[in-house]
Design goal:
69% of the residues lie in helices and 4% in strands. By secondary structure, the chain is mostly helical. 44% of the residues are buried.
C-alpha cells in the first residue's frame, strides 16, 4: 500500500464534517501518544490507589509502548527481551486454579510487555507513513490463524471454559509474535540479531542446567528459578536439572531443538568473537542436553543433526571437515556420560507409563472427534475416561502433542496444526533451495529444528510457554526468510551485512 497523494488527503479533509477536521490534520503519532498517555495516567492512578501486582503489571504494559513511541532504539531491546524470555520465564499466572493444566491461569509475562511495545512502535510508524504493507505476511499467517480459530471453537464444549480461554490467549500472544516477525523482518541484519539473542538464550539456559547439576540443588534469584528432580534408571539415582525453563523434559526440548540453528551460525558472516561465543554456547548446550536426560530432547537433537547433514551436503554449504569437527565435539562431550545415557535409554518405565495416557486420549477422540473435550481441558475430562482398568497407572495429561490437540480441540485443530508445521518446513526448504548465504545456512538450521520437533511431539506435550514460544519463533523466522527478497536467488548476501 502506497502513501496517500496530497490531493487525496485534501479531498478527504474537505469532505470531513467540521468537528472532525481538526483530528484529520493532527499527525497520527500525536493521536497515538495522547491516547496511550491518557490510558497510562488512568492505570497509574489505579496502581497507586490499589497497590496490587496486577495493576503494577498493567502499568508496565501500558508504559512500555509509550516509551517505545518516544525512544526508537527500544525496538531491538524489546525484541531481545522477547527471545530471552523463552528461557527466563519472567511471568505470573493470574486467576490460577493451581491445578494440572498449563497454563493454569492468565499468563502475563515479559513477552506480553514486549509484544505490546513492539506493536505500539509499529503502529505509530505505520500511521506516520500512512502505509502498512503486510499483504504477503497476512497470506502466510492464514494457516496458523485458522489453527487458533479452530482451537477456540472447542471452548463451546469445554467443562472449564476459563482455563480454555487462558490457553487461547497464550496462543494469540505467540501468533502476534509470529505475525510481527513475518511482517517486519526481511534483511540479514534483522535475522542475525534474533539469532545472536537465541545464542545468548542458549548460553544462559545451558549454564543454569550445568550449574544446577554440579551443585546438586535448585536455585532462585532475581525471579529466575531452577527446577530439577531425581530419576532412577535401573536403580541408579540421576539428578535431572531443568535450568530456568522448567522440567528437564521441557529444557531438553529447547536445548535439543535450539542447537542446530546455533551450529549454522558458526558459518555465517559474523565477527570472530561472536563465533567463539557461539561455539561455547553450542558446547555448553550439548553438555546441558545430556544432563537433562530427556530422551525426547535427545531424539530431537539427533533428528535435527541428520537434517543438517543432508541439507547442507545437498547445497554444498560447507566442507565435510566442519561436520566432522561438530560431530566429534558432540561425541567427546557425551563419552563421560555414556553409562548414564545407556541406562536412561534402556529404562522403559517412563515410556510404558505413557501408553495408558495415549489410550485414554484415543477414547476421548472416539467420543468427541470433531470438537474434542475442550482446549486445555484434558485434565478435567480425565476422570470421565480413566476407568478401573487404569487404576494402577500414572494418570496425567497425555505426552503426545498430536493426540492432545485432537482430544482437546478436535480434528480441524489437529489438521490445521499439522498444516502449520508442514508449511513452516516447506518455507524452510524453499529458502534452502533458493537463498544465498548466509540465509541458506540459517534456513538449514531452522528447518532442521522444525523437523526435529515432529518426533519430539510424539513423546512430549508442547503446552509450556518455552516450547510454544520456540515453536512459533522458528516458524516465524522460516516464513520471514522465505518471503525475504534476499531469498529469491542464490546470490550471496554478504554485501548486505552491516
Amino acid at each position: 500500500m502506497t502513501a496517500w497523494p496530497r490531493s487525496a488527503r485534501v479531498d478527504v479533509v474537505a469532505s470531513t464534517p467540521a468537528p472532525l477536521r481538526v483530528l484529520s490534520v493532527i499527525p497520527p503519532t500525536w493521536l497515538v501518544g495522547a491516547a496511550v498517555g491518557a490510558i497510562l495516567g488512568i492505570v497509574a492512578g489505579q496502581a497507586a490507589t490499589r497497590g496490587s501486582l496486577p495493576y503494577y503489571l498493567a502499568l508496565i504494559i501500558v508504559a512500555v509502548p509509550f516509551a517505545g513511541i518516544i525512544v526508537g532504539g527500544l525496538r531491538r531491546l524489546l525484541l531481545a527481551a522477547l527471545v530471552l524470555d523463552i528461557v527466563l520465564r519472567w511471568d505470573i499466572n493470574l486467576f490460577s486454579h493451581g491445578l494440572g493444566p498449563s497454563p493454569e491461569g492468565l499468563n502475563v509475562s515479559l513477552t506480553t510487555i514486549c509484544i505490546a511495545g513492539l506493536y505500539a512502535i509499529w503502529l505509530a510508524d505505520a500511521l506516520s507513513r500512512r502505509t502498512l504493507a503486510a499483504g504477503p505476511a497476512v497470506r502466510a499467517s492464514l494457516i496458523p490463524l485458522l489453527y487458533i480459530l479452530s482451537t477456540s471453537l472447542s471452548l463451546v464444549v469445554a467443562a472449564d471454559k476459563m482455563v480454555g480461554v487462558f490457553n487461547v490467549v497464550l496462543l494469540v500472544q505467540t501468533f502476534l509474535v509470529f505475525f510481527y516477525i513475518v511482517t517486519n523482518f526481511r534483511d540479514w541484519s534483522g535475522f542475525r540479531f534474533i539469532m545472536i539473542t537465541l545464542v545468548l538464550a542458549m548460553f544462559l539456559e545451558s549454564s543454569a542446567v550445568i550449574l544446577s547439576y554440579l551443585f546438586g540443588h535448585d536455585f532462585a534469584v532475581a525471579g529466575l528459578k531452577s527446577y530439577a528432580y531425581a530419576d532412577s534408571p535401573e536403580g541408579s539415582a540421576v539428578y535431572r536439572p531443568g535450568g530456568t525453563i522448567g522440567s528437564p523434559n521441557v529444557a531438553g526440548s529447547f536445548l535439543g531443538l535450539g542447537l542446530a540453528p546455533i551450529l549454522m551460525m558458526l558459518k555465517t558472516p559474523v565477527s570472530y568473537r561472536l563465533k567463539i561465543f557461539t561455539a561455547i554456547s553450542f558446547g555448553l548446550g550439548t553438555v546441558a542436553l545430556v544432563l537433562t536426560f530427556s530422551r525426547g530432547g535427545w531424539l530431537a537433537f539427533v533428528t535435527s543433526m541428520l537434517v543438517v547433514l543432508c541439507a547442507s551436503r545437498m547445497r554444498h554449504l560447507f566442507r565435510v571437515r566442519f561436520l566432522i569437527l561438530a560431530f566429534t565435539t558432540v561425541i567427546i562431550v557425551i563419552l563421560p556420560f555414556r553409562d548414564l545415557i545407556l541406562a536412561r535409554l534402556n529404562a522403559s518405565g517412563g515410556t510404558q507409563s505413557r501408553i495408558p495416557l495415549m489410550q485414554i486420549a484415543w477414547q476421548m477422540i472416539e467420543a468427541n472427534p470433531l470438537l474434542g473435550v475442550g482446549v486445555n481441558n484434558f485434565f478435567f475430562a480425565l476422570p470421565n475416561y480413566a476407568g478401573p482398568e487404569f487404576s494402577g497407572d500414572w494418570l496425567a495429561i497425555v505426552h503426545n502433542q498430536f493426540l492432545l490437540i485432537w482430544s482437546e480441540s478436535g480434528f480441524l485443530a489437529l489438521l490445521t496444526f499439522v498444516a502449520f508445521i508442514l508449511t513452516s518446513i516447506w518455507h524452510g526448504l524453499r529458502a534452502v533451495a533458493r537463498a544465498g548465504e548466509p540465509l541458506a545456512l540459517l534456513a538449514v538450521g531452522l528447518t532442521a529444528s522444525m523437523v526435529g520437533m515432529v518426533p519430539n511431539m510424539f513423546v512430549e506435550r508442547f503446552v509450556n510457554r518455552p516450547q510454544i514460544g520456540l515453536l512459533w519463533l522458528i516458524a516465524a523466522l522460516l516464513t520471514a526468510i522465505s518471503l525475504s527478497p534476499l531469498a529469491t536467488s542464490r546470490k550471496a548476501v554478504h554485501d548486505a551485512v552491516p
